[in-house]
Amino acid sequence: MAGLVVASAWRQQRRKRVFQSVFSGEVTSTTTVAGVQYPDPGQGLGGSILGSGAGHSVDPYLAPSSSATLGHSTPEPEPPHPYAPGNEYAPGNEHQRAYDQAWEVVTSRVALPASAAGPAPGAGESSPGLSLESLTAAQEQPQSRHRRNQKVDEEREQFLQCLSLLENAEAVLPEARERRDVIGWYVSQVRAHFAMWVVPLLAGGSDTAAAAAAAAAGTLAAQGVTHRRHQRNKHSVDSTAAGGGREWSGGSQYDRHMAVVMSTIETLEGALGMYFEGLNSLLEGLRRASGEEDNSSFGMKFKRDIHALIANSASQGGVMGSVKVVLTKLAGVILGVEGLMVSLGSKKGPWGAPPAIPQENDFDVLTAKRKLGGLVKQLHNVGLTGERFEVLFAEVMNDMMSRFVKGAYAGVWAASDPEEGNVVGGAGTAAASSVFTTSRGSGGDTTVPAATSACIKSLKDWVEKRYAQLNVQVLSWINATPMSLADLKACQSLALGRLAALRIQELFDIVLAWPDAKGALEDLKATITTTARRQLLTANFSKALEQRLLHPGCSTLEILQTYIHIIKTFHALDHSKVLLGNIEPGLQLYLVQREDSVRVVVAGLLASKEEIEAAAKVQQIDEDERLQRGASGPRAAAADLGRREIKAQAYSTPGVAGSSTATTCKTPTTRSRQGRDSNPSTPAPAPAHRQGPVLARAKKVNKLVELAKLLNESASVRRAGATDDDQELDWNDLNWVPDPVDAGANYKRPKSEDVIGTLISALGAEDVFINEFTAVIAERLLGDPKSFEQEMRVLNLLKRRFGEAALQKCDVMIRDIQESRKLNSKIRRNNAGGPQPANIPGQPPVLATPDNKGKSVATPQSSEKSKEQKDTGYHARILSRMYWPAFEKEHFLLPAPILDLQKQYEKGYEDLKSDRKLTWLNQLGQTRVELELEDRTVTVDCDTVQATVIYAFQSSSDSSTTPVKKAVDDLYLELQLDEDLIAAACDFWARKRVLRRVSTADGGVFVVLERLSDENVPVGEDAQQGQAVEEKGKEKEAAAAGPKEGGAKKLSDKEKEKREVYWKYIQGMLTNSSVTMPINQIAMMMGVFVIGGFSWSHEELQSFLGEKVEEGALEVVSGGKYKLVRKRENV
Amino acid sequence: MSYMDDTQNSAPGSLPASKAATGAATSKKVNENATKRLQNELMQMMTSPAPGISAFPSADGNLLFWRATIEGPEDTPYAGLNLKLSFEFPANYPYTPPTVLFITPIYHPNVDFSGRICLDILKDKWTPAYNTQTVLLSLQSLLGEPNNASPLNGEAAELWDKDPALFKTKVMDRHKDIEED
What we know:
Chain A is mainly α and 1131 residues long. Chain A contains 41 helices and 13 strands.
């Protein structure tokens, strides 16, 4: 304590020095006057005429006595006869002497102590002794306290007499020429005292200052000034500290600041008390002396002045900072913001969707309110509630509003259902941390958003009942202009603006959570009413898109899925699509760069019902798991296990190769279907042990099944809405709304959200999409031909969108396949009795295409039944050449038996259609192969190339005991098939554990694995390596890898041709249209002029142009523009 | 060629569809025909280019306005020169001929000083069977064999026979490479 006191004393000293350097005049004069206690009358005071403009009355001669303090013996006694400046009166002038004496008496009575509130016991007591209260109660005061051992009464009497003498000096002491204004003197005294002793104590704010101030307050309290006041203040400080400790544990910061504020108030109150007491006694004396009653107005003026002084001084120190902290805390409690922060922090706050704001009559709230009331009133009393306080309060309230909106509504998106709100809130948080691992909420479709969102309602309510109320109260405490109704409205709209800003920030997560965040959308919808906010929204969202979605870390599928959510969300937000249109360009630009986006979309459109169901099931399970996680209990674990099993099945159904998705939107239809158990069409091998737990967490999605679902749904919707083409002319449309303000010039109101349409248009030109669609359809038709139901449906829907002609090719393709079936049975009938069972394989190959006239390709296909009947079903698919994507013929030698069958078939065909000829595309067929090995029989469905390869391993003689062993290079000669394809086929069989790689020489040597037990017998040095390869392989991968490889090869020639043509275009362009062109323009021109659409991506074009530059055919000139290199210089 | 047949065959099918969709006026349909035809012509020129000539739509992507280049044939006064032309196709192309102008200043009996060309197939002898490529080929041959019977530039027609050397000089004087961008 001692140290602290010393420190604070030192601080005061320093402050004083600083202060002096700035306000030297004032300080000097103060001390001068204060030090005038005992100087020889007639001296020392001569030169200083002290008025209210005390700052000007500098008395340099007396400045050295600056350390003199009232109540102490003067440390530096005045020389008896100093320079006596300006003493014009002759010594011995009795009047003057009397006057001076009276002056001395008066000033000594009202002089202020040398501390903020009168520290020194002697002086301190003398000062309060003058207070009116003390005066009235003077008799009770112990006599010993009086310096001159006189009775209070006498002193008071003397004081009054002297005062009256001074006041009436003109009449009574006409000779005393040296007269002074005692009030003016007092005012300046007060100012100086305030500056010197009080201001240093106002330096609260920073923590150290706070400590010092608190210490000072403590000292102050200990020293005991104005007892009554002291008692009260001490009490209040104590209660504050106690209350703080109880209510807000850990609020030490707040407590400290509270202490600062309280000590400041206390200091000021003490000081003010002193000032007013002195003033009042003066005024009273004067009143008595002059008999006038007019000086109360002077008291008011003085009060105003001193308040202004305090307000100005406070602004210099950190007290207002502390006040702000305290205000923030209290207002936070009152408005329920603190509670929100706490519950938000602990993540388990019980607040539901409409956040549970602490009730108004909550104990804490009431306490805080009372405390705030007391504080504000005190502040007002000491004059700290000036303009500055109002600004401060406004800042705090502003901050409160932001914090409340953020705390109460962040992540609360489905406001209509408390439980929902909880769940979704969690999801929102998760979404923030990682874009695609959000566990999407469920059941959002069951909540019907209220007409006005609950958030908005509760926010308005809050503003009206709590926020505005607090405002009104505080303003009334400080006598400021009260709030009007218009102010309330302004506050509400301000709050809604905050909410809008919050939602805009959250929008990306809201989109991810679609459709669970409809509540949030309602908020947004109701709040984005201005163009500026709409722009903010689009700008913000575009930025979020760039940062969170449009980067290489997101798969195209994820982007497209999010895009679907975006479309839906924005449609819900703004039916006009203007907002969507504003954010779309960047997204579309990015999607166009993704090569696989069209393919993903097409695949999604063609997703089968089973896939949709599987996806829905996975999702359902996720949902259940989540619910279960919430509901603890012994049953949960068991049920969980069971469900996982089911999920694993869903993931592994063969027909549905990995169609898991956790993010499809729910529709009632798919839900109801979930009642059925696992897919009927799938035997479900379910390697649950391996996949179960892993996949259960994986949110990987393989297809955009949403699209398929949308397509199905939209079928009915579209039909219903087919008539409203002329919506604009519908005068009876009661729901008509004007176009949004930020709509473009050619704006046309769209009718529906039209996800598919938007998506397709986002992918660039229609023809690009159609081409891709055709390719995918072709692939599927050549693959599993069981049913075209899905294809037909999609095709029909697309036709409605693009027109018949555009999809003519697809029609023809499907018809080809259908007719091929009829033809097959016809030919088989004709050839009845023909086919002999082939030894090993079922039946291969396929596709015939040739002839110039047009129709013709056959793809052979094995019939399912053939196995049992030992009858080789040889089926071909006849493809119409012009309508299928260009397949390149892969040459290889078919096994002899198959070749025979093929010839037979060909003959049968040519009998039926005399002028047509078949060209076989052998590599495109499927075969069922039955392999008889020593210890087992293997039946495999594979493609013709694979079948051909394995056929080559057939034992030449039955007697041979050693397994057949062949090298890839040998097979190459034997089959005349591309080596890579052979190697791939061998690997395929190796993975089926039919072949075994024994060496890598000659491109790989394989041996038939006659007995599974042979598998681990090392053969040669490479055995182990071969095995490793075998085990690593996974069937799915192999299956996927095969066709793709072939596809790439097939395209190469076509691609080459394409490059040639494109090069011609570019040459023509650069020769004629413009000599130099940037790549963008080239791409644009190509897009416009190339028939069938320009299929290259920007990157492809760039690398192509790069090649041409290297070849020397092109050059890059300024601005990255391309230019043809002149072959000849001829000018 | 086969590709072209294909698209042309499918064109009639697609037209009604698009027409129904837009409910467009006849002019739109005509315009569509013209652009379709021009697209095909372009494709054809790109896939089977003729030596010494090339053409391409203008840089703004407007299919109805092309730029073309003819390299002056050897053994003519124009050998080694690149001559630029502009093609402007009417909306009902190919039923009316395109407007063809030399942009490069050229000294030629059948071309006037503002680039206008006197060639029968661009006027009354036009049939829809002609196309951009045939027009360019005709112009290319016109460079070597002007029709001096109906000159636009009488002096050139005269000099062509009388003083080939002077003609060549005049050609070179008049010629100016256009580097437009």
